[in-house]
Amino acid sequence: MKTHLDRYKQIAEILYRNGLGYLVSASGLETRLPFRRKAQPGDRPEQPASSPEYLRRALEELGPTFIKLGQLLSTRQDLLPPRYQKELAKLQDSAEPVPWEQIHPVLQGALGEDVLARFASFDTIPLASASIGQVYAARLPGNIGVVVKIRRPGVDEEVNEDLDILQSLAGYAGKHWEAARDYDVQGLMDEFADTLRSELDYAQEGRNARRFALNFEDNPAVTIPAVYEEFSTSTVLTQQRLHGLKVTDTAALDAAGIDRKALAVTAADAEMKMVFDDGFFHADPHPGNIFVQDGGRIGLIDFGMVGEVDDKFRAQLSALFIAVIRKDPDRMASALIRMCARTRRVDRLRLRLDLQQLIRLYEGRTLGNAPVGRIINGALGVVRSHHLQLPREMALLLRMLIMTEGMGEVLDPDFSMGQTLGPYARRMTLQQLNPVAFARRLGQAGAETLELGAELPDQLRRLMNTLDFEGLEVHLRAEELSPLVGRLERVGNRMVAAVFAAAFIRGVGELTLGDTERWKSWQAPLMTAGLASTGALGGYLAWTARKQRIRGY
Questions:
Q1: Number of Cβ within a 10 Å radius of residue 431
Q2: What is the pLDDT of residues 42-58, one digit of tens each?
Q3: 146-167 pLDDT, tens per residue?
Q4: Cα–Cα distance, 318 to 433 (Å, whole number)
């Protein structure tokens, strides 16, 4: 019976053979092996600094899970330098077809023994064969053309074993390899595992497709294929078959009389609608997933990779867009630091200078005329150099924007992604600043402030009891103070915001009634009280510091 140890050995052997033995050591893989492998004839020399091609070949040899990992890494400009991205982008998710005799039992197990009788016709030669599933053409009763995606037998067990191994190795690397800590390899691998396990579940892809269909039901420019639920499970997905021209086949589009300039705008506008209006976007808009139908309609397929935009992400995006539009490197630095995870202290001055250089790419231009792809690639280079880690949704969004701009420029050399992006970005930013959104954030801030207020008396009482003991010394490291100071700053800011908002809201009401004298009578005391309340905790801590011997180092 094959065990994890057999797979560990196989992975190590392939890495050694491709000159990547340093990865065996860095990941702790050699600690899982009962022997130390000696160099073998035919092994490639170890070249950690120049091994993109060797890495790609090793991933191809390691199979579906590692190919998917390589494809993910090829899209993460914030993690890998361009030469690695370029090489890993060559990884193709294709595989030798599994014989029908092995696929048929999977279909029967999902839909029943008499499954083929339920179709009007079924072509057993696959249209496409990928590492996780194979796609077949078929027809339902009523002569409805469909495609049937069937998961390859045994692939879920294989993928889950490899994911367990990768997560284990990432945990070791994060503890013993500085580069792995800097880029949070453990977190990245956990995220990858969640994404790939979701991709194995065709029921989830079906739910994604139905959600897109609902979002575009009133948009005649975009077609989303229908999902036939009675012919779909977690291992089988049956969808309407779309026909059309490849979106980047300019000669065929011209021959069909398609207006390529209008098509570029339609495709980009559909992606922007997903992000800024629906909060749910197709994260893999490569040419193979887009068909051009009669009249220039866009047909989208393959909904395994998606991104979501929640309220927190909207706020982060808005802050970043405001900074970009204002060409303000300080705001850009603050927005990036709030958005990104980090494992080391950020050199804010150097980050600001790097962003100032980036701003020169669009100096004197509006967002509508800015080179969006160049700006994003430049920003990702800055993020990478400062060891910041983009959240998954932001990485997906930036990748989608770059791919959409590239597709638009193939269709129309004069295409400007900024002209499509600009109105959506400005509208979203204004939405974040409207009274309703402000009130919602104020309510959230108030809830946290009330929670802290409820805890504070007990916490202060316990602190006073502790301070009554003689000879107490508190030792704090500078980096240990940062989270405390950060939280105090956030709470203080929110208390100030709450007080000023209350003053503003009541003031507007008073002014509306024309009672300006009453407004003047309470405005100053309330604002003074608010500032005093935010300073009370800081004053107490300062008094405590004078009373006690606090040494920092």
A1: 13
A2: 555 555 545 788 899 99
A3: 999 999 999 999 999 999 999 9
A4: 9
